[in-house]
Amino acid sequence: MLGNIIVGQSGGPTAVINSSLAGVFKTAKDSGCPVIYGMRNGIEGLLRERVVDLSEKIKSGLDIELLKRTPSSFLGTCRYKMPDYTKDEEPYKKVFSILKKMDIKYFLYIGGNDSMDTIDKLSKYSDATNSDVRFIGIPKTIDNDLAMTDHTPGYGSAAKYIAATVKEIICDARIYELESVNIVEIMGRDAGWLTCASALSRSEDCDGPDLICLPETVFDYNSFMNKIHEIRKEKTAITIAVSEGIKTADGKYVCEENGRSMSEDVFGHKMLGGTALYLSDFIGRELGIKSRGIVFSTLQRCASHLVSRCDITEAYIAGAAGVHLAINGETGKMVTFDRVCDNPYQIKTGCCPASAVANIEKKVPLDWLTNDNYYVSEKFFDYARPLIIGELTPFMVDGLPRHLFIG
């Protein structure tokens, strides 16, 4: 007989993270799991026994469809780092005590690099203590920086939003004859997948951004300004996409140039922001022309009104695949996507050890960039275009999208 299942969400949300949750819930229910629990605010909430019976919150097929179209994390999220259990065993004892009390047999966690670290640590502790609980990670991140998988649920929708919005910014910028520069800041600490997506705005009715600056390459002020001078010879309105995490040769973030102190999260990551605003001021001073910094910030991860149908479908598939892996006896694994073909686009699901993903960042291959490192090559377009295809219309009520909230 199947056991109870529990699922949580961790890290930054995406526009389709709840589609993965819907995939877990529907598949677990159809498979015959007696109770499907949800952790409120991830593993941190579980440690405080903040748990809900999802059957009381998702009561119909309409609720499932609403959930799939709801942005952010339905269950709430956290950024909690599990310690090394050989040095601090108490959190593990508490987690496993709660799981035993609730008769949990399958533990699923929807998240990114740090979440896979949690899955890896919990599964290893489970092995060390002869527990029969199975731990499975379901990939999620707009950053697309998870190793071992072709791409990550959440990226396609963020890429679609970024490309569409950059296209609209370019349309807006070219209405005046006066010279101007727009610097668009896009999320990406050490990997520039999202910033690359700005290039998808390039089409027969749009030139796309004029420059793209990624954390995979060294940012050089002289080279950057020389590029701008070259572009000014051809056009008056310039649009530049930059990753928030671009660095100079000395390893310093460009956003640190403004002199403000930068706090860190629990994983030791610096809290970035301000790159576009700093560069905008810099260009304005250097060239004496109108310059504007535009920061997408959280908009790129919560725009469910412009979700990619491909992405939301694959997010659901990832959730369903996680349930099947757990029921079939796998543990300590993460669901993966393997690309079968670009044209027609096809993927299949697989799995890999969570340890192969935990705390590892997959960066944009340098051979996917042009020779000057300021744009992407056709390899990126072939990779990314299928991921933004299709739409899923929101359920509109009084002119606005309707969402499902846990209360």
Describe the structure.
The chain has helices spanning 17-31, 42-47, 61-68, 90-101, 113-128, 155-173, 193-196, 221-232, 275-287, 299-302, 309-327, 378-384; strands at residues 4-9, 36-39, 51-53, 104-111, 134-139, 180-186, 211-213, 237-243, 290-295, 333-342, 345-353, 396-397, 400-401. It is α/β, with parallel strands linked by helices. The strands form 3 sheets. Strands 3-2-1-4-5-10-11 form a 7-stranded mixed beta sheet, with helices on both faces. Helix 1 (17-31) packs antiparallel against helix 3. The two termini are 32 Å apart. 50% of the residues are buried.
> Which regions contain 5 or more consecutive residues with pLDDT less than 50?
none
How much strand? 15-25%
Number of domains: 2
Summed over residues and divided by their number, the pLDDT gives a mean of 95
Record field, number of beta strands = 13
Predict the CATH topology of the largest domain: Rossmann fold
Could you tell me how far the N terminus lies from the C terminus, measured between alpha carbons in angstroms? 32 Å
Oligomer: single chain
Residues in helix, %? 25-40%
Name the structural class: alpha/beta
What is the gyration radius calculated from CA atoms?
22 Å
What's the level 1 CATH class of the largest domain? Answer: Alpha Beta
> Strand sequence of the main sheet, in spatial order?
3-2-1-4-5-10-11
Shape: elongated
